[in-house]
Design goal:
single chain, 346 residues, mainly alpha, Growth Hormone, Chain: A, 2 domains, 0% strand, globular, Sugar/inositol_transpt, sugar transport, MFS_trans_sf, MFS_Sugar_Transporters, carbohydrate:proton symporter activity
Protein backbone atom coordinates (compact mmCIF):
# COMPACT_ATOMS: atom_id res chain seq x y z
CA UNK A 1 0.00 0.00 0.00
CA UNK A 2 2.83 2.41 0.81
CA UNK A 3 5.15 1.49 -2.01
CA UNK A 4 8.90 1.01 -1.75
CA UNK A 5 9.58 4.69 -1.05
CA UNK A 6 6.79 4.81 1.49
CA UNK A 7 8.29 1.88 3.37
CA UNK A 8 11.70 3.54 3.34
CA UNK A 9 10.11 6.64 4.81
CA UNK A 10 8.40 4.65 7.56
CA UNK A 11 11.56 2.62 8.19
CA UNK A 12 13.63 5.80 8.52
CA UNK A 13 11.18 7.31 11.00
CA UNK A 14 11.18 4.17 13.14
CA UNK A 15 14.97 3.97 12.98
CA UNK A 16 15.39 7.57 14.09
CA UNK A 17 12.83 7.14 16.87
CA UNK A 18 14.56 3.97 18.09
CA UNK A 19 17.99 5.58 18.12
CA UNK A 20 16.71 8.65 19.99
CA UNK A 21 15.07 6.46 22.62
CA UNK A 22 18.35 4.63 23.16
CA UNK A 23 20.32 7.87 23.34
CA UNK A 24 18.16 9.33 26.10
CA UNK A 25 17.72 6.03 27.93
CA UNK A 26 18.68 5.97 31.58
CA UNK A 27 17.26 2.50 32.20
CA UNK A 28 17.57 -0.92 30.63
CA UNK A 29 13.83 -1.00 29.90
CA UNK A 30 13.93 2.18 27.80
CA UNK A 31 17.09 1.00 26.07
CA UNK A 32 15.36 -2.24 25.09
CA UNK A 33 12.25 -0.36 23.97
CA UNK A 34 14.38 1.81 21.72
CA UNK A 35 16.07 -1.26 20.29
CA UNK A 36 12.67 -2.78 19.57
CA UNK A 37 11.50 0.34 17.71
CA UNK A 38 14.80 0.43 15.83
CA UNK A 39 14.29 -3.22 14.88
CA UNK A 40 10.96 -2.37 13.25
CA UNK A 41 12.71 0.16 11.03
CA UNK A 42 15.53 -2.23 10.16
CA UNK A 43 12.98 -4.94 9.36
CA UNK A 44 11.20 -2.62 6.95
CA UNK A 45 14.44 -1.95 5.10
CA UNK A 46 15.31 -5.66 5.10
CA UNK A 47 12.08 -6.53 3.30
CA UNK A 48 11.79 -3.56 0.95
CA UNK A 49 15.33 -2.90 -0.24
CA UNK A 50 16.10 -6.31 -1.82
CA UNK A 51 12.63 -6.33 -3.38
CA UNK A 52 13.22 -2.95 -4.99
CA UNK A 53 16.71 -3.94 -6.15
CA UNK A 54 15.27 -7.00 -7.86
CA UNK A 55 12.52 -4.96 -9.52
CA UNK A 56 14.56 -2.08 -10.95
CA UNK A 57 17.75 -3.90 -11.96
CA UNK A 58 18.15 -5.13 -15.56
CA UNK A 59 17.88 -8.91 -15.85
CA UNK A 60 21.60 -9.41 -16.47
CA UNK A 61 22.49 -7.37 -13.38
CA UNK A 62 19.76 -8.58 -11.05
CA UNK A 63 21.73 -11.28 -9.22
CA UNK A 64 24.87 -9.14 -8.69
CA UNK A 65 22.67 -6.27 -7.51
CA UNK A 66 20.96 -8.51 -4.96
CA UNK A 67 24.36 -9.71 -3.77
CA UNK A 68 25.26 -6.06 -3.19
CA UNK A 69 22.77 -6.15 -0.30
CA UNK A 70 25.24 -8.41 1.53
CA UNK A 71 28.03 -6.07 0.46
CA UNK A 72 26.29 -3.11 2.10
CA UNK A 73 25.90 -5.17 5.28
CA UNK A 74 29.61 -5.99 5.22
CA UNK A 75 30.63 -2.38 4.70
CA UNK A 76 28.37 -1.28 7.56
CA UNK A 77 29.98 -3.89 9.81
CA UNK A 78 33.47 -2.61 9.12
CA UNK A 79 32.31 0.96 9.81
CA UNK A 80 30.79 -0.17 13.10
CA UNK A 81 33.94 -2.12 13.98
CA UNK A 82 36.06 0.96 13.32
CA UNK A 83 33.86 3.11 15.55
CA UNK A 84 33.91 0.51 18.32
CA UNK A 85 37.68 0.27 18.01
CA UNK A 86 37.99 4.04 18.47
CA UNK A 87 35.56 4.07 21.40
CA UNK A 88 37.48 1.25 23.10
CA UNK A 89 40.44 3.63 23.36
CA UNK A 90 38.31 6.33 25.00
CA UNK A 91 37.75 6.65 28.76
CA UNK A 92 34.87 4.56 30.10
CA UNK A 93 32.14 7.22 29.96
CA UNK A 94 28.58 7.31 28.65
CA UNK A 95 29.93 8.89 25.46
CA UNK A 96 31.76 5.64 24.66
CA UNK A 97 28.50 3.77 24.16
CA UNK A 98 26.18 6.63 23.19
CA UNK A 99 28.27 7.76 20.21
CA UNK A 100 28.04 4.41 18.35
CA UNK A 101 24.30 4.42 18.98
CA UNK A 102 23.90 8.02 17.85
CA UNK A 103 25.98 7.40 14.72
CA UNK A 104 23.09 5.29 13.45
CA UNK A 105 21.12 8.51 12.90
CA UNK A 106 23.30 9.32 9.91
CA UNK A 107 21.87 6.66 7.62
CA UNK A 108 18.10 7.23 7.97
CA UNK A 109 18.75 10.96 7.62
CA UNK A 110 20.62 10.29 4.36
CA UNK A 111 17.74 8.09 3.19
CA UNK A 112 15.20 10.82 3.95
CA UNK A 113 17.33 13.39 2.14
CA UNK A 114 17.63 11.16 -0.92
CA UNK A 115 14.04 9.93 -1.15
CA UNK A 116 12.79 12.81 -3.36
CA UNK A 117 15.42 11.88 -5.96
CA UNK A 118 14.72 8.12 -5.98
CA UNK A 119 12.15 6.82 -8.48
CA UNK A 120 9.43 4.49 -7.22
CA UNK A 121 9.52 0.90 -8.42
CA UNK A 122 7.82 0.78 -11.86
CA UNK A 123 6.65 -2.75 -11.14
CA UNK A 124 4.86 -1.65 -7.98
CA UNK A 125 3.28 1.31 -9.78
CA UNK A 126 2.09 -0.89 -12.64
CA UNK A 127 0.53 -3.34 -10.20
CA UNK A 128 -1.50 -0.42 -8.79
CA UNK A 129 -2.58 0.82 -12.21
CA UNK A 130 -0.42 3.96 -12.06
CA UNK A 131 1.01 3.60 -15.54
CA UNK A 132 1.79 7.30 -16.06
CA UNK A 133 3.92 7.41 -12.91
CA UNK A 134 5.48 4.10 -13.89
CA UNK A 135 6.47 5.53 -17.27
CA UNK A 136 8.08 8.54 -15.58
CA UNK A 137 9.90 6.23 -13.21
CA UNK A 138 11.20 4.16 -16.12
CA UNK A 139 12.50 7.30 -17.83
CA UNK A 140 14.45 8.19 -14.70
CA UNK A 141 15.82 4.67 -14.31
CA UNK A 142 16.78 4.24 -17.97
CA UNK A 143 17.32 7.74 -19.38
CA UNK A 144 19.51 6.49 -22.23
CA UNK A 145 16.64 4.57 -23.83
CA UNK A 146 15.16 7.71 -25.34
CA UNK A 147 18.34 9.65 -25.98
CA UNK A 148 18.03 9.51 -29.75
CA UNK A 149 14.37 10.44 -29.82
CA UNK A 150 12.93 13.88 -30.47
CA UNK A 151 13.36 15.90 -27.28
CA UNK A 152 10.00 17.54 -27.88
CA UNK A 153 8.30 14.19 -27.19
CA UNK A 154 8.68 13.40 -23.49
CA UNK A 155 7.07 9.96 -23.72
CA UNK A 156 9.39 6.98 -23.32
CA UNK A 157 10.23 4.64 -26.16
CA UNK A 158 7.16 2.73 -27.45
CA UNK A 159 8.88 -0.59 -26.68
CA UNK A 160 9.12 0.42 -23.04
CA UNK A 161 5.45 1.38 -23.01
CA UNK A 162 4.56 -1.98 -24.58
CA UNK A 163 6.62 -3.83 -21.99
CA UNK A 164 5.03 -1.72 -19.29
CA UNK A 165 1.54 -2.57 -20.51
CA UNK A 166 2.46 -6.25 -20.69
CA UNK A 167 3.65 -6.19 -17.10
CA UNK A 168 0.50 -4.35 -16.08
CA UNK A 169 -1.71 -7.02 -17.62
CA UNK A 170 0.39 -9.79 -16.12
CA UNK A 171 0.37 -8.25 -12.66
CA UNK A 172 -3.37 -7.65 -12.79
CA UNK A 173 -3.96 -11.28 -13.70
CA UNK A 174 -1.58 -12.59 -11.06
CA UNK A 175 -2.71 -10.36 -8.20
CA UNK A 176 -6.36 -11.22 -8.74
CA UNK A 177 -5.86 -14.63 -7.16
CA UNK A 178 -3.30 -13.86 -4.47
CA UNK A 179 -3.74 -14.14 -0.72
CA UNK A 180 -2.00 -15.11 2.52
CA UNK A 181 -3.81 -18.43 2.78
CA UNK A 182 -2.38 -19.53 -0.56
CA UNK A 183 1.09 -19.55 0.97
CA UNK A 184 -0.06 -22.64 2.85
CA UNK A 185 -2.84 -24.15 0.75
CA UNK A 186 -1.41 -23.74 -2.77
CA UNK A 187 1.32 -26.31 -3.50
CA UNK A 188 3.31 -24.06 -5.84
CA UNK A 189 3.12 -21.00 -3.58
CA UNK A 190 4.02 -23.12 -0.56
CA UNK A 191 7.10 -24.41 -2.36
CA UNK A 192 8.17 -20.84 -3.11
CA UNK A 193 7.85 -19.96 0.57
CA UNK A 194 9.86 -23.01 1.62
CA UNK A 195 12.70 -22.28 -0.81
CA UNK A 196 12.73 -18.51 -0.26
CA UNK A 197 12.55 -18.69 3.53
CA UNK A 198 14.73 -21.79 3.59
CA UNK A 199 17.57 -19.97 1.84
CA UNK A 200 17.66 -17.28 4.54
CA UNK A 201 17.15 -19.74 7.39
CA UNK A 202 19.95 -21.97 6.08
CA UNK A 203 22.11 -18.87 5.83
CA UNK A 204 21.87 -18.45 9.61
CA UNK A 205 21.56 -21.93 11.13
CA UNK A 206 25.21 -22.59 10.30
CA UNK A 207 26.03 -20.52 13.39
CA UNK A 208 27.72 -17.59 11.66
CA UNK A 209 26.04 -15.11 13.98
CA UNK A 210 28.04 -16.30 16.99
CA UNK A 211 31.03 -14.43 15.56
CA UNK A 212 29.13 -11.30 14.61
CA UNK A 213 27.53 -10.94 18.03
CA UNK A 214 30.21 -12.31 20.38
CA UNK A 215 33.40 -11.78 18.41
CA UNK A 216 35.09 -9.41 20.85
CA UNK A 217 34.44 -11.56 23.92
CA UNK A 218 35.50 -14.70 22.04
CA UNK A 219 38.72 -13.09 20.77
CA UNK A 220 39.58 -11.97 24.28
CA UNK A 221 38.93 -15.43 25.72
CA UNK A 222 41.22 -17.18 23.22
CA UNK A 223 44.05 -14.91 24.29
CA UNK A 224 44.21 -12.25 21.57
CA UNK A 225 45.64 -9.02 22.92
CA UNK A 226 43.54 -6.66 20.78
CA UNK A 227 40.08 -8.14 20.05
CA UNK A 228 38.77 -4.95 18.43
CA UNK A 229 41.68 -4.84 15.98
CA UNK A 230 41.08 -8.49 15.10
CA UNK A 231 37.43 -7.69 14.38
CA UNK A 232 38.44 -4.82 12.11
CA UNK A 233 40.84 -7.05 10.16
CA UNK A 234 38.29 -9.85 9.74
CA UNK A 235 35.60 -7.45 8.52
CA UNK A 236 38.06 -5.88 6.05
CA UNK A 237 38.69 -9.34 4.60
CA UNK A 238 34.94 -9.93 4.52
CA UNK A 239 34.30 -6.83 2.39
CA UNK A 240 36.88 -7.99 -0.17
CA UNK A 241 35.36 -11.49 -0.30
CA UNK A 242 31.80 -10.22 -0.74
CA UNK A 243 32.95 -7.85 -3.48
CA UNK A 244 34.58 -10.82 -5.23
CA UNK A 245 31.36 -12.80 -4.82
CA UNK A 246 29.36 -10.02 -6.48
CA UNK A 247 31.60 -10.34 -9.53
CA UNK A 248 32.19 -14.10 -9.62
CA UNK A 249 29.64 -16.08 -7.61
CA UNK A 250 26.80 -15.83 -10.12
CA UNK A 251 29.04 -17.32 -12.80
CA UNK A 252 29.53 -20.52 -10.79
CA UNK A 253 27.04 -23.38 -10.30
CA UNK A 254 25.09 -22.30 -7.23
CA UNK A 255 24.31 -25.72 -5.81
CA UNK A 256 27.91 -26.91 -5.95
CA UNK A 257 29.19 -23.60 -4.62
CA UNK A 258 26.83 -23.72 -1.64
CA UNK A 259 27.71 -27.36 -0.91
CA UNK A 260 31.46 -26.72 -1.14
CA UNK A 261 31.39 -23.67 1.13
CA UNK A 262 29.11 -25.48 3.57
CA UNK A 263 31.75 -28.20 3.87
CA UNK A 264 34.47 -25.62 4.49
CA UNK A 265 32.36 -23.89 7.14
CA UNK A 266 31.57 -27.20 8.84
CA UNK A 267 35.25 -28.11 9.17
CA UNK A 268 36.16 -24.59 10.29
CA UNK A 269 33.56 -24.30 13.02
CA UNK A 270 34.38 -27.85 14.23
CA UNK A 271 38.06 -26.94 14.61
CA UNK A 272 37.20 -23.67 16.36
CA UNK A 273 34.88 -25.50 18.74
CA UNK A 274 37.40 -28.21 19.57
CA UNK A 275 40.30 -25.82 20.18
CA UNK A 276 38.30 -23.14 21.95
CA UNK A 277 36.38 -25.19 24.55
CA UNK A 278 36.67 -24.51 27.40
CA UNK A 279 37.65 -20.98 26.46
CA UNK A 280 39.30 -20.08 29.77
CA UNK A 281 41.97 -22.74 29.19
CA UNK A 282 43.07 -21.31 25.85
CA UNK A 283 46.26 -19.53 26.89
CA UNK A 284 48.60 -20.67 24.11
CA UNK A 285 49.07 -17.89 21.56
CA UNK A 286 49.66 -20.44 18.80
CA UNK A 287 46.31 -22.11 19.49
CA UNK A 288 44.65 -18.71 19.52
CA UNK A 289 46.10 -17.89 16.11
CA UNK A 290 44.99 -21.24 14.70
CA UNK A 291 41.48 -20.58 15.99
CA UNK A 292 41.28 -17.13 14.46
CA UNK A 293 42.66 -18.51 11.17
CA UNK A 294 39.77 -20.97 10.95
CA UNK A 295 37.35 -18.22 11.96
CA UNK A 296 38.59 -16.19 8.99
CA UNK A 297 38.24 -19.26 6.75
CA UNK A 298 34.64 -19.67 7.90
CA UNK A 299 33.89 -15.99 7.31
CA UNK A 300 35.41 -16.18 3.81
CA UNK A 301 33.41 -19.29 2.88
CA UNK A 302 30.17 -17.80 4.22
CA UNK A 303 30.54 -14.46 2.49
CA UNK A 304 31.49 -15.95 -0.86
CA UNK A 305 28.36 -18.08 -1.06
CA UNK A 306 25.68 -18.24 1.63
CA UNK A 307 25.92 -14.57 2.57
CA UNK A 308 25.16 -12.97 -0.82
CA UNK A 309 23.43 -15.95 -2.46
CA UNK A 310 20.95 -16.41 0.39
CA UNK A 311 19.39 -13.01 -0.31
CA UNK A 312 19.57 -13.59 -4.07
CA UNK A 313 17.80 -16.96 -3.96
CA UNK A 314 15.16 -15.67 -1.54
CA UNK A 315 14.33 -12.74 -3.82
CA UNK A 316 14.37 -14.80 -7.03
CA UNK A 317 11.99 -17.39 -5.59
CA UNK A 318 9.55 -14.72 -4.35
CA UNK A 319 7.73 -14.33 -7.66
CA UNK A 320 4.18 -14.24 -8.95
CA UNK A 321 0.96 -13.05 -7.38
CA UNK A 322 2.24 -13.36 -3.79
CA UNK A 323 5.70 -11.89 -4.34
CA UNK A 324 5.60 -9.38 -1.49
CA UNK A 325 4.03 -11.82 0.95
CA UNK A 326 6.51 -14.60 0.19
CA UNK A 327 9.49 -12.32 0.67
CA UNK A 328 8.04 -10.84 3.86
CA UNK A 329 7.70 -14.34 5.31
CA UNK A 330 11.26 -15.17 4.23
CA UNK A 331 12.74 -12.09 5.92
CA UNK A 332 10.66 -12.71 9.06
CA UNK A 333 12.02 -16.27 9.14
CA UNK A 334 15.52 -14.83 8.75
CA UNK A 335 15.24 -12.56 11.79
CA UNK A 336 13.57 -15.22 13.92
CA UNK A 337 16.42 -17.59 13.07
CA UNK A 338 19.00 -14.94 13.96
CA UNK A 339 17.30 -14.39 17.31
CA UNK A 340 17.08 -18.11 18.08
CA UNK A 341 20.68 -18.88 17.14
CA UNK A 342 22.13 -15.89 18.98
CA UNK A 343 20.07 -16.66 22.10
CA UNK A 344 20.80 -20.39 22.23
CA UNK A 345 23.95 -21.54 20.41
CA UNK A 346 26.57 -19.58 22.42
Amino acid sequence: MLGRKGMWLVGSVFTIAGVVLQLVAESTALLMAGRLVLGVGVGGFSVTSPLDMGEVAPAQLRAPMLMCWQLTLSVSQIVAAGINRAMALEPATSFSFRFPIGFQLLFPILVLAGLPFVPESPRWLVARGKTDRAARSLRRLFPGRGRDRDREHPDPDPSIIAALQHHMDTESRLHSGGGWTQLVTDRVERRKVVVSAGALVAQQVNGIQWFYYFRTVFARDIGLQDPFLMTLIVFSIQVVVVAAAVVLADRLPRRRLLLATTGIMTVSIFVVGCLGIPSHEVQNQVIGRVIISFVILEIVAFNFAWGPLGWTIASEMAVGRNRNKIYAVAVAAFWVTVWVTVSTLP
